[in-house]
Specification:
Number of domains of chain B: 1
Distance between the termini of chain B: 25 Å
Structural class of chain A: mainly alpha
CATH architecture of the largest domain in chain A: Orthogonal Bundle
Oligomer: heterodimer
Largest interface: A-B, 21 and 26 residues
Strand order of the largest sheet of chain B: 6-7-8-3-9-10
Strand content of chain A: under 5%
Helix content of chain B: 25-40%
Radius of gyration of chain B: 18 Å
Number of strands of chain B: 10
CATH topology of the largest domain in chain A: MetI-like fold
Structural class of chain B: alpha/beta
Bound molecules: adenosine-5'-triphosphate, magnesium ion
Number of strands of chain A: 0
Shape of chain B: globular
């Protein structure tokens, strides 16, 4: 009887818009309302004092004073590069990186790669206009910084209009660029303009990034190999992998770094020069690989056994099953854990200070210690360093979310 | 009676002699002997835990038996890896839970094994796949991912995937028991067509209507043994064993 007198229904009043959202999520019950008000008040207060300090009280000039040292350490100082200009060497490395970013953009044609390339290009170009005297930051330095913008364009065009715009070539170029960077920064004895620069001098964020890139790219494949080895039917392989994983997981990274200086050289030919950078990279990679292996193994265990059975029933070999069926699914499902670990690895690169290397944190610390007149600026220095780390880690988690979305993780 | 110790003839595509299988100390198959002729359709029924899955999984060596002999299409199942590979190329399998590869499209699922195992060129594998998709009635789903298909469509894609290796024998392990009634119909339709095409089929299934219609033999397992093996009419109308009667009265 009532069915045909149904009145026109309006949507409930607070359904849509900001108010609707707030009503539905923040003020939907009295205890939630109280909580929202209290938390809101605390946040506002924190924001108020934070901003007031950052804008009115803080003296950010200290950042300008330390300047480029945060980025590359004392690379261009007289002790590092006696009587010569070495500044162009890290600059050329940077150009290679931006060119690769441009290639990524050109290959993908837009999306995340485009956004990242543009942001990086703009930020670097802005550095060229820093209000330093020309004495502190010469025209040559500024021009090389600006050159990153055309470098991105060149990379983009290269990927767009030549046959190098494929994943394979970009990977090849990336590896080449990484090795070239190391060679450039380290220098080669006997070649004019490329005189060796001791590792203690190439610190700063560059050091953090080099260690992180090496660690990240190597720890994933090593971790996968360890995880597979741990499931191997061959007792020797299995035991080796278990021992490796448990040893590297069971010892603090700091301890490993101390040991590395003495142990890694033992594994190398006598003639090989002692190299703390290499030792640190090896240890960080192994440490991360051990954790990576367990992440991957967890993913392998969570994989429905029917997947491998179906693959084997079709006649695929064990390796084919692993490479084409198991790993692609496992890696997708453990991307969040993998990225979390990469972020941890990047932050842990700061620990190399204990073997005498000067990462960005260490530069901040020694600068404050060495210049008592700046002690009052400790906050600014470390907030800046924290921000520098955060920008990169946030970038990593941003990219990983994009990749997850792209692969449709969690909606199979 | 088709089982027994008579020597394998040329028409015998599967020969099992006194097959035993233990899981740890649990005796899952207790001396199974049977012979399947080329083109025969055998439906296997039996109570839960009676060893039906275990038995058909020994036929493509997803499980290995510890005693007795199994000869499939002239190849003796042993630990020899080459034999195992050959068997799996020759025997297709369809699972209760479909087990499609979720990261590959339907097309990718079907072409993977022909390309990687038989080394067919992509084009040829795709041609085969298109034909098979048509045969199972989902030609317009080729580019979708398994999660985007209904259960019935997934199972039909899984059947196409198994057929893509052009096997001589198809094993089905309760292919419809995860499906809704309408979807059961569409999958049985495909199996019916397959049976009519002289494929050798061993299917664990409790779809008795289907069994009565297409099976040449119905084999009943109980507690790891074959307790009955008769043509459908005899099986349903005058079963010889008390256990069969009891089981039929439970599921009918
Ligand atoms: N991997 C295994 N490990 C130990 N026991 C197993 C394993 N697989 C099966 N079994 C046991 O072997 C027996 C036979 O199992 P099987 O799966 O073959 O039964 P089924 O007849 O297929 O039953 P259902 O109708 O429930 O599928 C069961 O008692 C089961 O518990
Ligand atoms: Mg079963």
């Amino acid at each position: 009887m009532m069915a045909n007198v149904r009145p026109m229904l309006r949507p409930p009043r607070f359904e849509a818009g900001v108010l609707g959202w707030a009503h539905a999520n923040l003020f939907n019950s009295w205890h939630n309302s109280v909580l929202s008000v209290v938390v809101g008040a605390v946040l506002l207060l924190a924001l108020w004092f934070g901003l007031r300090w950052a804008i009115l009280t803080a003296d950010w000039s200290v950042i300008a004073t330390v300047g480029g040292r945060f980025v590359i350490g004392s690379y261009n100082s007289d002790q590092a590069c006696a009587g010569n200009n070495c500044f162009w060497r890290p600059q050329v490395s940077l150009l290679m990186v931006t060119m690769l970013l441009g290639m990524g953009w050109g290959m993908a044609g837009g999306g995340v790669t485009k956004r990242i390339a543009i942001i990086v290009g703009v930020v670097i170009a802005l550095f060229a206009f820093l209000p330093y005297s020309f004495e502190r930051m010469g025209m040559d330095v500024r021009l090389l910084l600006l050159a990153n913008v055309p470098a991105i364009g060149a990379g983009w065009a290269l990927a767009r209009y030549t046959r190098f715009g494929t994943v394979k070539w970009i990977v090849i170029f990336s590896v080449a660029a990484f090795l070239l960077t190391i060679i450039l920064l380290r220098g080669i004895a006997g070649i004019p303009g490329l005189q060796p620069v001791a590792v203690q001098h190439w610190g700063g964020l560059t050091l953090n990034l080099i260690l992180a890139v090496a660690g990240i790219t190597l720890s994933l494949p090593i971790g996968i190999a360890l995880a597979l080895g741990r499931r191997s039917h061959l007792p020797v392989v299995k035991t080796l992998c278990v021992v490796f994983i448990e040893v590297f997981r069971g010892v603090p990274l700091i301890t490993l770094l101390f040991m590395s200086q003495h142990l890694v050289p033992l594994a190398l030919p006598q003639t090989f020069p002692r190299d703390s950078l290499l030792s640190a990279a090896v240890v960080i990679t192994m440490f991360s690989a051990a954790y990576m292996a367990e992440n991957i193994r967890g993913g392998l265990q969570a994989l429905h056994p029917g997947q491998e059975e179906a693959a084997r029933a079709l006649g695929l070999s064990g390796w084919q099953t692993t490479l084409r069926i198991s790993l692609p699914q496992v890696i997708r499902s453990v991307i969040p854990a993998i990225v979390g670990q990469f972020i941890g690895l990047f932050k842990d690169t700061s620990l190399v200070y204990i073997i005498g290397m000067v990462d960005i944190t260490e530069i901040g610390r020694t600068f404050i210690l060495g210049n008592p007149e700046f002690r009052i600026s400790t906050k600014e220095v470390f907030i800046f360093i924290a921000l520098a780390f955060w920008v990169f880690t946030y970038g990593m988690s941003y990219v990983s979310r994009k990749i997850e979305g792209h692969l449709g993780v969690g909606q199979r | 009676m088709t089982n027994g110790e008579n020597a394998a003839g040329p028409e015998d595509i599967i020969v099992c002699r006194d097959v035993h299988k233990w899981y740890g100390s649990f005796h899952a198959l207790k001396g199974v002997s049977t012979t399947v002729k080329r083109g025969q359709v055998v439906v296997i029924i039996g109570p839960s835990g009676s060893g039906k899955s275990t038995f058909i999984r020994t036929l493509n060596r997803l499980e290995h038996h510890q005693r007795g002999d199994i000869v499939v299409d002239g190849i003796e199942l042993t630990d020899d890896v080459r034999n195992i590979d050959a068997i799996r190329r020759d025997v297709g399998m369809v699972f209760q839970s479909f087990n499609l590869f979720p990261h590959l499209t339907v097309m990718g699922n079907i072409t993977l094994a022909p390309m990687k195992v038989k080394k067919l060129p992509a084009r040829e594998a795709e041609e085969i796949a298109v034909q098979l998709l048509e045969r199972v009635g989902i030609q317009d789903q080729a580019d979708k991912y398994p999660a985007q298909l209904s259960g019935g469509q997934q199972q039909r894609a899984a059947i196409a995937r198994a057929l893509a290796m052009q096997p001589n024998i198809m094993l089905f392990d309760e292919p419809t028991s995860a499906l809704d009634p309408e979807m059961i119909k569409e999958v049985l339709e495909v199996m019916r067509e397959l049976a009519a095409s002289f494929m050798t089929i061993l299917a664990v299934s409790h779809e008795l209507g289907f069994a009565r219609e297409v099976a040449d033999r119905i084999v009943m397992f109980d507690e790891g043994e074959i307790v009955e093996d008769l043509p459908p009419n005899d099986f349903f109308d005058n079963p010889r064993h008390e256990r069969v009667k009891r089981f039929l009265s439970q599921i009918l």
